[in-house]
Amino acid sequence: MFPGIEEAVLQVVSPATLLLCLAGVVAGMAVGATPGLSATVGLALLLPLTFTLDPARGLVLMGAFYSGAIYGGAFTAILVNSPGTPSSIATTFDGYPLTRKGRSEVAIIAVTTASVVGGLVGVVGLLLLGPAIADVVLAFGPQEYFWLGIFGLTMIAGLAAKSLVKGFAAGFVGLLISTIGIAPVGGDVRFTFGFTQMQAGVPLIVALIGFFTVPAMIDLMVDPGSRAAAMRREARRREPGLLLRTVRDVLSRPLNLIRSAVIGTFVGMLPGAGGNVANLIAYNEAKRASKTPGEFGKGKVDGVVAPEAANNAVVGGGLIPLLTLGIPGAPPDAVIFGVLLLHGLRPGAELFTTQGELTFTFIIALGVSALLLAPVGLIVGRGLQRAVVRTPTAYLVPGIALVTMIGAYAVRNNPLDVVIMVALGLVGYGLRHLGLPPAAVVLGVVLGPIIEAGLGQGLLTASGDAVPWLSFFTRPVSAGIIVLVLLALLWPLWGRWRRLRAARTTSAAGAAGPAADTEREGTK
Amino acid sequence: MHNTSRRAFLAGLTAAALPLPLAGCATRSAPAGGDVADYPTRSITYTLPFDPGGESDITARLQQQPLEEALGVSVVVTNRPGGGGAVGWSELVHQTRPDGYSLMGANVPHVILQPLARGQAGYETDQINWAYIFQSTPNALVVSGDGPFRTVDDFIAKAKTEKLSLGGSGSYSANHIGALALAQESGADVTYVPFSGTAAASPALLGGQVDGLMTYNTEALQLQDKGMRVLAVASEERVPEFPDVPTLRESGFDIVEGAWRGVAVPPETPDRVVDVLADAFARVNQDREFRKKATNLGFHILDWGPRESAEFIRERTALAKDLLRRFDLLHG
């Protein structure tokens, strides 16, 4: 079934390959934890180095680096509200609140556990299902991506804690930001206000730093005391057995881990969506399935576990279409694709047969790298956590300001991006005071291009039909996603109705009115 | 506490102000005479105005080592993506010092079509100062392997009775105007569907969402492995990787279209510097290892120096203007 897998195993367990895995994971973690330096940029920096290695070793190094980078993105998301890569957006939602509560070590241990499990699930999916389910990818056309984006937008209902209207307003601000630059379909130049540099639009990572990190830093500048108390407690505290307790706690809810990892593997498979979408969906589904959804966003461990299990599963999932169809599942896969091509390896069935040894070496090394995340992450991640916790606010804030500016610049080596980041940061700070959740804005920025391209391409591909827009409703997979969208929209209503009924049956007739009112407040 | 907060705030502000003056540092001034005579004496930056991992990026990273050998100095490859390359090229012609220490990858037809279609692309086609054009990837027309089309004529005949869709990479790209040119030459009804890249367009054909693809020969090679049928290539002569596939010209359509890649410098760069660079890229093309890898990837190696490149650009600009005018796609 797996020709060449024995040789592959032998090659992976050799000291040289293991060392390469370790080096890749460590380097990836460092790059991933730097906001602005994404997995893609880091892999490109590695390219010249892989030319000097044989194909298998080059791929092993890149796979390990990729895993490390996606995992490393969680560190800064948790510690300073700055997603190191777009794959850790949702990790900030509960990770930073955990830090503010003085529970950052718990968060780091939890995401490490989640990343290992997620990475392994992705690799198993790639190994066992890869060639068999690659065709699923092809059932996703423009129409399906459009609906997937709309499904993503329904998350606003969950992110908008206080007011649905303000949540959607924030979402539309994000969609508007995503339209700046060259139109994905048609190539029109939009909202550049005469600045030619704005043709490039607003890069996601710059928006992330602006909307998440800058307001968090302003908060610390305005009121340094808010951080000091909880953190000083954590810096002083020594909790024996915290590691084991946290790992056991995370593993005690396998459903959350597995659900998130499966979401990650599946979304990773889709070439039009990657870790940036997968981590958000996984977070939202974890919240929806939870018995206590109200605790999400306030520092719940499950809220960091879900996105981090999902994004490391994307690593394996994204390689499914790459290795079987030659279609990169996520942007970092494009660089790995380049390495394959350079070595004259053409993706397709032969990668799993005649080139089996090479392919399985790569896949198994990915699994080993996922396991390596645990020891390396617990040392590096907790070291970083301790350093951040112990650094006085007066040094931490300017330090982070500097790192994020370098990061924003590094995304495209463009100084304008630093200006955009600061501007969006101030906007984000203002919007939050108006009650517009920044997470909903970012959701719009992530999903806008997917929805817009899907709509435009869908209408064009169906332009031979009598009524092109009907194609958005008649395709079977589209219909399936529409059902999911409707379910997502009706879910909160159903929950409210159920609670209303429960309130009515338990309370006496006279008390029903006010009880129902407070329920409504609580569910908004 | 109050004092600490103010200090933190001020420190934050200082950090915020730091990178801004740096942005203006890339001033333009002509290099001193002595610099030109013994160029190059220090490290050269070779920037790609695209994301890492694409054809242009991979090529530059393959070129890096032989280029260092040819020039005798180190070469640093970086990316400055945005606007389909426009952000990088705009910077090249307006902000980069014309001393030959900053090179940028440049692509045809991008540098021709962006100014024509956008009006304000941030640069003009004739401001791109070509040092060398080193490779091309011609367009190829690819359809489903088990579909009804066996020849270009089959496809065109069908497109005259009903609307067919052709996917491709991007708007105002080689694939886009390749599809337009085919529609123009044949009188067929073809709708072009732009996708976000070469690889992103392929699932649409494999999954049957489009009737065909106008893609590059490199991608066509991979699609053929997956059972797709290559109907024609838009090169002047048949290409070695598809010896049995006719050119569009053989099929009666006078279309030569695709992407041409090269390297450019700022407008006022001294001729001597441009010549040194052209010479170096010519030597890179002769490097056996580079040649082998580039050819394996499906790149057609070209050796066009500054004058040949400029002449080629003039020719292609006239053609593109004409085509866009017919489809009413010219800006303004």
Describe the structure concisely for a colleague.
Chain A is built from 24 helices and two strands. With 524 residues, chain A is mainly α.
Describe what you observe in this structure.
The complex is a heterodimer of chains A (524) and B (332). Chain A is mainly α and 524 residues long. Chain A has one domain. Helix content of chain A is 76%, strand content 1%. Chain A is built from 24 helices and two strands. Chain A has a two-stranded antiparallel sheet. The C terminus of chain A is likely disordered. Chain B is an alpha/beta fold and 332 residues long. Chain B has two domains: 155 residues, Bordetella uptake gene, domain 1 (D-Maltodextrin-Binding Protein, domain 2), CATH 3.40.190.150; 96 residues, 3-Layer(aba) Sandwich (D-Maltodextrin-Binding Protein, domain 2), CATH 3.40.190.10. Helices cover 45% and strands 20% of the residues of chain B. Chain B is built from 13 helices and ten strands. In chain B, strands 1, 2, 3, 4, 5, 6, 7, 8, 9 and 10 form a ten-stranded mixed sheet that branches. In chain B, strand 5, helix 8 and strand 6 form a beta-alpha-beta unit. The longest helix of chain B has 21 residues. Chain B starts with a helix and ends in a 6-residue tail after the last helix. The chains are: A mainly alpha (524), B alpha/beta (332). Chains A and B meet through helix 3, strand 1, helix 10, helix 16 and helix 19 of A and helix 1, helix 2, helix 4, strand 2 and helix 5 of B.
Give start-end ranges of low-pLDDT stretches of chain B. 1-27
CA(first)-CA(last) distance of chain B: 60 Å
Shape of chain A: globular
Structural class of chain B: alpha/beta
Number of domains of chain B: 2
Major sheet size, sense and barrel closure of chain A: 2 strands, antiparallel
pLDDT < 50 stretches of chain A: 509-524
What is the CATH superfamily classification of the largest domain in chain B?
A: Bordetella uptake gene, domain 1
The averaged pLDDT of chain A comes out at: 89
- Write out the strand line-up for the largest beta sheet of chain A, numbering strands in chain order: 1-2
CATH topology of the largest domain in chain B: D-Maltodextrin-Binding Protein, domain 2
Helix content of chain A: over 70%
**Helix- and strand-based class of chain A?**
mainly alpha
